[in-house]
Amino acid sequence: MTEARPGEQLKLGAFFHPTGHHVASWLDDSAQIDAGTNFRHYAELALSAERAKFDLMFLADALAVRDGRPEALRRWPQYMAYFGPLTLLSAIAALTSRIGLVATATTSYNEPYNVARKFASLDLISGGRAGWNVVTLSNQSEAFNFGREAHYEHDARYERAMEFADVVLGLWSSWDDDAFVRDRATGIYHDPAKLHELNHKGAHFSVKGPLNVAHSPQGHPVLFQAASSEVGRELAARIAEAVFTPQTVLADACAFYADLKGRMGKFGREPAHLKVMPGLNPIVGRTLAEARDRHAHLQSLIHPDVGLELLSYSLGKFDLRGYDPDGPLPEEVERHGTNAGQTGFRQIVDWARQENLTIRQLYQRFAGARGQSTVIGTASMIVDEMQTWFNAHAVDGFLIQPATLPGGLNDFVDQVIPELHNRGLFREEYEGPTLRDNLGLPRPGGKAP
């Protein structure tokens, strides 16, 4: 705990891409090369994070094999073949007892009833540790797997997402906490007065309910959200309990933090009931030179085809192959625009214009961290940065994204966590059995509104 934020400590999540967050992580000798389909790999990561008292582990998702140029994709295994997150987390739940289990599920290509049922089940299986990352997804190929010829437009995706989330929240309130009497003597299994039909009819969904899963141990799974656009901020202020956000500049992060928490009042919510946790990519070394060498090695593994493909994808599939990689980002990119993620698109363009980065420099920066902040140095240097952001009210915590797995996680746990303890910035024991307990979030009531 610090003088700037007395009584508060950082919240930490661990984001596990299969081989690590760096786009070339699978090429590093220390990475688990078959990680996407290696359950023991994920189990060991979860147990390591739980021993370190991380609040949660997080798994992203996509509903299509990544498309693009074969010469690039053959060198880029992420999102090609890997476990479905909810199936994997259900297995992880049986091996762990405290760490939160958070997964992405899209509102664009799911139905609210299915999502409500799956996450409620995970919450019961884990004893109250589930979290749902509410996303719209932006991969055009996903539309083709669900009977659509094109992806939903950006604002339409969020309109659907808002209604989707409302339906899920309503379904999670189908049963009161004490609805199930289960009395053999009287032959009464449940109290009908404590069962609530939803009867939702809206612009996108018609859902009668109730949900055929009992009320969650923690009221309902914790809601996470990741977008930073205007419509995304409104959704987060209304429903999110934790936000994953790309922030690389302290002043911008402070402004985002204040803006997001400032919006919550109009929805009758307290600012403390939402945790802002931007991504952080730590490259840890016993010395600064060692950390820099590790980062340089990973950067050297980025194949130009992969770098250009990743950058092009985030720029609305703008083809950069005909441009000088050591020249500026073409102005046509901004006229081209994107229907995909607006935050990443804007961030890349801002880097190019404000810092005069070349195309090569852009893809090296973006490929290494996917638009998130990278901190390179010793444990003390990394904690200095984390503490500065925390004290400045730019964050409530971080989503740690190890560059390689399992090595990057082990480095953070062995070196950075003890330094956080030394400064009183992070817990040494879990506060309670549920994800809400550990994030310091209130439990929703046991009755439907």
Provide a descriptive summary of the structure in words.
The chain has helices at residues 39-51, 70-73, 85-93, 112-126, 140-144, 154-172, 230-239, 250-262, 288-300, 304-314, 332-336, 342-355, 359-369, 379-391, 407-422, 435-439; strands at 11-15, 56-59, 100-106, 130-135, 180-183, 188-190, 200-201, 206-207, 222-225, 242-243, 275-276, 279-284, 373-377, 397-400. By secondary structure, it is of the alpha/beta class. Helix 3 (85-93) packs parallel to helix 4, helix 4 (112-126) packs across helix 6 (154-172) and helix 14 packs across helix 15. The protein starts with 10 loop residues before the first strand and ends in a 10-residue tail after the last helix. The model has no long low-confidence stretch (mean pLDDT 90).
Please tally the β strands and state the result. Answer: 14
Radius of gyration: 22 Å
Major sheet details = 10 strands, parallel
Low-confidence stretches: none
Category by helix and strand content: alpha/beta
Helix and strand pattern: EHEHHEHEHHEEEEEHEHEEHHHHHEHEHH
Compute the number of helices: 16
The best one-word shape is globular
Characterize this entry briefly:
This protein has 449 residues and is α/β, with parallel strands linked by helices. Helices cover 39% and strands 12% of the residues.
Descriptive terms for the model:
16 helices, 449 residues, 14 strands, globular, alpha/beta, two-stranded antiparallel ribbon, 10-stranded parallel sheet
Set down the secondary structure blueprint.
Blueprint: E1 11-15, H1 39-51, E2 56-59, H2 70-73, H3 85-93, E3 100-106, H4 112-126, E4 130-135, H5 140-144, H6 154-172, E5 180-183, E6 188-190, E7 200-201, E8 206-207, E9 222-225, H7 230-239, E10 242-243, H8 250-262, E11 275-276, E12 279-284, H9 288-300, H10 304-314, H11 332-336, H12 342-355, H13 359-369, E13 373-377, H14 379-391, E14 397-400, H15 407-422, H16 435-439
Parallel strand pairs: 1-2, 1-14, 2-3, 3-4, 4-9, 9-10, 10-11, 12-13, 12-14
Antiparallel strand pairs: 5-6, 7-8
Helix pairs in contact: 3-4, 4-6, 6-7, 10-13, 14-15
